Every structure is written in structure tokens, then in C-alpha cells.
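From the pipeline queue, job 12 of 40. The input is one protein chain; the requested action is below.

Action: predict structure.
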Amino acid sequence: MCGLIVSKVMIFGRPGSGKSTFATQLAKKYHLPVHHLDRHFFVANWKDRDYKEFLDIQQQLVMTPKWVIDGNAMRSLETRFQQADVAIYFHFNVWRCLWRMLKRVSQKDWDIPDLADGCSKTIRWKLISYMFNFHKRYYPFIQELRIKYPYVQFHIFKTDKDVHNFLNSTQKK
């Protein structure tokens, strides 16, 4: 099999679903730069960065020739979607995502630099609520983007097997 060709990949979905881990693995496998949006969306202590400043940073990222961008920032999802070759929606079971969130907070050796400086690993009620309501709240918008940008290869991951199969079927563009 020839495989799916990747050079601009956006990854979004429920918190705790494994987006950052997958983004790091994919970027490493294909020597692509990886960008975790939380590093740009937040500043110390989980405060939102000035939104205009965040949009400018994001625009600079998507205009580069190759990237893996992990994160939601759903108000600006279209900015990434219109520039992506591949969009991957992590739609894992909510209880599995909650478990992974708890596991991540307890890990001492988390080495993926996906948090903004001055932000500690934590679980806030707001994040749990966001995770539980993510699909219901955003899926209609995601479907609109799929229709508007049919050239973007769209994938939904619901299991670890989906992640594994994708990693084994892709090649660098």
C-alpha cells in the first residue's frame, strides 16, 4: 500500500485523548515540526494570551510548509483546517479521556513540552466539563468544515488501534 501522505497535519479533539502524544510521535517519525497550541494559547497560570496575538502566532505556524499542530482552539479551527493536508479528530470515549487526564497529572516524567511556561499539569472542573461536552458542542461545526474544505483528508480516531493504523499507513510528503 502506498499510504497516506502527510506534511501539514492538524490534530484536535477531546482533552485526554492522546493528541499531544500522537502529534509528537508523528512529528518524530516524519521529521516534521510539532506545535502544541496550548503553549501559544495560554501564558503562565493558565491565563489566556491576548487573542489577537494568539491568532497571529497561529497564522505564522500554518503558513510554514510543513507542520503538525496539536490542539483545539476551536474558534480558530478553520485557520488550521483550510491549510491542512490532513485533519485528525480524536473522538475517544469520555471515561478513557478522564482516566488519561488523571494519569497524566500523576506522571512525574511527562516529557512532551505541550504546556505554556508557568502552567502546571492540573485538572480543572472547566476542563472536565469541556471534555464531556466537546463532541456535542463542536461536531456540527467540524462537519461544516469538512464540507467547506473537501480536499482535507479527514480521519476520526476512536481507539488506540486507529492511531496505530494511521502511523503505519502514512508517509512523508
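Job complete. The mean pLDDT is 88.
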